[in-house]
Amino acid sequence: MDGMTTTGTGTGVTATARISARENGRGGTVLPTLESAGPLALRRTRASGDEARVMLVGAMSGPLGGDRFAVEAQVGEGARLHLGSAAATIALPGQAKGSEARYDVRLDIAAGGELRWLPEQLISAKGSDLVVSTSVDLAPGARLVFREEQVLGRFGEEPGRLRSRLTVRLGGRPLLDQEVTCGPGAPGGWDGPAVLGGHRALGQLVVVRPEFVERTPEPQVLGECAALTPLAGPAVLVTALAPDALRLRRVLDEALAAVEDAA
C-alpha cells in the first residue's frame, strides 16, 4: 500500500511515513504497509534472500525549522526488514527564526523478527535546530542492528543545534536510554576534551542478538576514539567519534563486521 499522512502548518510540514513487515508463511517477508508522506518517500528495492529492503528517499529538503517528521516501522514475528536511505538527511534553518524541527523514529520488533536500520548520516547545518527522538521496542528473541550517525555542520561550517535521544527497550524493560546535545545553546563544554574533543562526526551502533545471552562480545577499544560496550542484556553498544563522516562510517562498519562474526 502506498498512502500519505501529511499536513501543512504555518510554521512547517508534519509528515509520518509508516512501514510494516510480515512473514509470508514461506520464509519470506512481505510489506502490507508502505506509506509515504510528503518529503518522506519509501521505496521497496530488490530483496536479499528472505529479507525485505526499503529505501527512504528524501523528496524535499529538510527537515526545516518548524517541520515535524516521523518514521514508524513494525516488524512481525519471523519477518526481516532492512531499511536504509538514499542520501544524507540535512537539518536546515526554517523561515521563522528560532523555530525548532523534530524528527521522531518509532520502531517495534516482534519475537523472531529482525530489523536492520542503516540510514545515511544526519547533517546539522548552521542555523538549524533539530530534536531527534528514537524509540525502539523489542520483544524477547527479536534482533536489531541500529546505526546512527550525526555530522555537525557541512564542510567548513559551524553546526546547528542538535538534540538527540535514543531509547531501546527489550521486553518492556530499558536496555539503553541516552541523550546528547551539541551546537549553539548546548550545555557548556560539549565540544571540549571530555566530550567531542573537536570531532565533527559522532555515531553509535546497537546490536541486539538472542545469542548474546550465552556469549556477549568482550568490551574493547576500537581505534583512537571508539569503544564497544556490552549492555545489561543480549546487546552491545558501539560509540565512535571521527573527524568526518567517511572515517566514522569506516569505524562503524568494521565494528559491525566484528560483532556479527562474534555472534
Secondary structure: elements and pairs:
Elements: E1 6-8, E2 13-23, E3 29-35, E4 40-48, E5 51-58, E6 68-75, E7 80-85, E8 89-91, E9 101-109, E10 114-118, E11 122-124, E12 129-138, E13 143-152, E14 161-170, E15 173-182, E16 201-208, E17 220-221, E18 226-230, E19 235-242, H1 245-262
Parallel strand pairs: 2-6, 5-7, 6-9, 7-10, 8-11, 9-12, 10-13, 11-13, 12-14
Antiparallel strand pairs: 1-2, 2-3, 4-5, 13-16, 14-15, 16-19, 17-18, 18-19
Protein name: Urease accessory protein UreD
Keywords: Chaperone, Cytoplasm, Nickel insertion
InterPro entries: UreD (IPR002669)
Can you put this structure into words, describing what you see?
- The protein is mainly beta.
- The chain has one domain (about 5-210).
- It has one helix at about 245-260; strands spanning about 5-10, 15-25, 30-35, 40-50, 50-60, 70-75, 80-85, 90, 100-110, 115-120, 120-125, 130-140, 145-150, 160-170, 175-180, 200-210, 220, 225-230, 235-240.
- The strands form two sheets. Strands 4, 5, 7, 8, 10, 11, 13, 16, 17, 18 and 19 form an eleven-stranded mixed beta sheet that branches. Strands 1, 2, 3, 6, 9, 12, 14 and 15 form an eight-stranded mixed beta sheet that branches.
- Strand 1 (about 5-10) and strand 2 (about 15-25) form a beta hairpin.
